[in-house]
Design brief:
Helix content: 55-70%
Number of helices: 11
Oligomer: single chain
Strand content: under 5%
Mean pLDDT: 83
Structural class: mainly alpha
Shape: globular
Length: 252
């Protein structure tokens, strides 16, 4: 809060706040408050070396992603890989949403979506992409639909390239560069079981697991569509797309 009075502090606490920080904040003040409220083993310090997982085989680079920056933000290579997997899902699902916002002149929804993507991009170390997103967010704030449309075209192209490169990175890091047909089918069946139980969170978690373990090239387009249907909560279409994926894999 920018309010410095004791009365304001009491108002915040009576409304249910656990603590109170007044501006201007210093880094030391904020860090002290974080240490006060969180156990030390839950705090990641940026000057610490990220924790390494010997089971992972982290490749040296992804074009457009500063791996060391992302690992430092996340605190370990395992958390970094999890964040990349989540970001890969965003790169699959959000382009259509951005294009829909532009088509229907929904700049407020567009700004929120761009802001969320930018935060994810920064956390995994995709700094150049985050800067492009920030420019688009500024033009949307100014209500300039034409310039925002131009930025969106660049962003969608950038997202597709990142999606492909990050997907390859995830498979290499997980040791699943050669995707197992049986594992993929098992993951698809897991998604179907979650849908049958009306467990959307479980289905989304199963989809993230499937992506981290690899998508065979012959069903990459079908899986992309499946993820869109999951995002839209179109359960019948999800089930049909799962069946199509299984049929393609068994046929091959």
């Amino acid at each position: 809060s920018s309010q410095l009075t004791q009365e304001n502090r009491l108002d915040c606490q009576s409304a249910g706040a656990d603590d109170y920080l007044s501006r201007e904040l210093s880094f030391d003040y904020l860090r002290a408050k974080i240490k006060e409220w969180f156990e030390d083993n839950r705090i990641i310090y940026s000057d610490e070396e990220p924790k390494r997982d010997e089971e992972l085989q982290i490749p040296e680079e992804i074009e457009g992603v500063e791996i060391k920056t992302g690992m430092r933000f996340m605190g370990s290579d395992r958390r970094f890989l999890d964040a990349l997997t989540s970001f890969h899902r965003t790169l699959t699902l959000k382009p259509r949403m951005l294009e829909g916002c532009i088509l229907n002149s929904l700049l407020n929804e567009y700004k929120k979506t761009i802001h969320d993507i930018r935060n994810e991009a920064r956390m995994v170390g995709a700094s150049d992409f985050a800067r492009l997103l920030f420019k688009a967010e500024l033009t949307a704030r100014n209500g300039d639909l034409n310039v925002t449309r131009e930025y969106t075209s660049q962003i969608v192209d950038y997202m597709e390239k990142l999606r492909i490169d990050i997907g390859m990175f995830i498979r290499k890091a997980s040791g699943n560069e050669n995707v197992s047909k049986d594992i993929f089918i098992d993951n698809i069946i897991n998604i179907k079981e979650c849908i049958n139980l009306f467990d959307l969170d479980g289905a989304e978690s199963a989809a993230r697991k499937m992506e981290s373990e690899g998508i065979p090239d012959e069903v990459s387009k079908q899986v992309e569509q499946l993820n869109i249907y999951l995002e839209d909560v179109a359960m019948d279409k999800v089930m049909n797309k799962c069946d199509e994926c299984i049929e393609i894999m068994q046929r091959g």
